[in-house]
Amino acid sequence: MSKDYLYSAVAANGVIRVIGAETTNLVEKAMTIHDTSPVATAALGRVLTVSAIMSRGLKNDDDSMTIQFRGDGPIGCVVAVTDAFANVRGYVGNPNVDLPLNAKGKLDVGGAIGKGYLSIIKDLGLKEPYQGTIPLVSGEIAEDISCYFAVSEQVPSVVSLGVLVGPGDDERNHVVCAGGFSLQLMPGATEELISVLEERVNKIASVTTLLKEGKTIKEIIGELLEGYDVTDETETECGYNCSCSKEKMEKALVSLGRGELEEIISTTGEAELTCQFCRTSHKFDKNELEKILEEI
Ligand SMILES: [Zn+2]
User: Fold this and answer.
1) How far apart are CA 65 and CA 153, in angstroms?
2) What does the pLDDT read at residue 1?
3) How many Cα atoms within 13 Å fall on the side-chain side of residue 15?
4) How far is the CA of 90 from the centre of ligand 1 (A)?
5) If you measure from the C-alpha of residue 17 to the centroid of ligand 1, how many angstroms do you get, rounded to a whole number?
6) CA 243–ligand 1 middle distance (angstroms)
């Protein structure tokens, strides 16, 4: 299977900015780590895909961004984090959520998420992280993100995201394909340009249909932008990579405080912390715990 990647380009003299992503492998990796049901895979996969796309907005190497969907549906929360290099990671509240297909015969991501809020938190190395929150439009992810761009950043955009889950040769579920794109209009877009793009976006098949046919995300975007000059094309990798380490987990133990640490040492005598993003467990024995206690 080909590697996951981001493709970006500028078109129509800089008025259109588009970023696409092929994320089949990273969504499959997320599904394997969290053992997600098909609808949970689709929800998490769409949020991971858009976080990879939005990583392009992070300017500095140390910047990071968290996308949180918090609804009243059975999946609970859906969270994805990315760094500036599109190393994404995420989790869902309930990975086992199982719902009937929606009226369109698709995985019911909106039903799994329910009504609630979308928050985007950007840590740009400033004193306080930047946070924007909007009420969910549909919980289908792409529509909600598009609304976020319009409300919080005043940028008209089209966002399309898709994750197709199906049985493989081993009869287990796999991610057949996953990807998406965001197309943003900068100031100076004419009414004519907007209506042409709207018509094309409405006419084009879903991202997963086109990816499954063997088209690349670059070709899909190429169809949308046909006839316009396309410049500044770039392709970069993206992937599911967690940045957790024993040192970082130590900070979580420190934050428990002396009292609780002393209690762990005198009762179980060891601690095991599991990373919520990659499910790796980090173990601390009695000696290590005592050393952490000394340093508080
Ligand atoms: Zn981890």
Assistant:
1) 15
2) 59
3) 14
4) 10
5) 33
6) 6
List, for residues 163-195, the tens digit of each pLDDT value: 999 998 898 999 999 999 999 999 988 889 989
For residue 229, how far is its CA from the centre of ligand 1 (angstroms)? Answer: 42
The answer to whether 282 touches 273, Cβ cutoff 8 Å, is yes
**Is it the case that residue 12 has pLDDT exceeding 70?**
yes
Q: 161 alpha carbon to ligand 1 midpoint, in Å?
A: 25
The pLDDT of residue 171 is 87
Q: What is the whole-number distance in angstroms between the Cα of residue 149 and the centre of ligand 1?
A: 29
Question: pLDDT tens digits, residue range 111-170?
Answer: 999 999 999 999 998 999 999 999 999 999 999 999 999 999 899 999 999 999 999 889
Residues in the chain: 296
Q: What's the rounded Cα separation, in Å, for the pair 138 and 274? A: 32
* C-alpha of residue 249 to centroid of ligand 1, in Å: 10
Instruction: Identify the H or E element spanning 145.
Output: helix 142-152
Q: 76 C-alpha vs ligand 1 centroid, how far in Å? A: 20
Closest C-alpha among 98, 202, 205, 121 to residue 162: 205
- Dihedral angle computed from the Cα positions of residues 154, 130, 80 and 182, in that order, rounded to the nearest 10 degrees: 20
For the chain, first and last CA: distance in Å?
Answer: 48
Buried b (16+ CB within 10 A) or exposed e, 133-158: ebebbebbbbbbbbbbbeeeeebbbb
Give the single-character DSSP code of 61: T
What are the tokens at 15? 């008025």
**Residue-range domains of the chain with CATH:** 5-240 (3.55.30.10), 246-295 (3.90.1280.10)
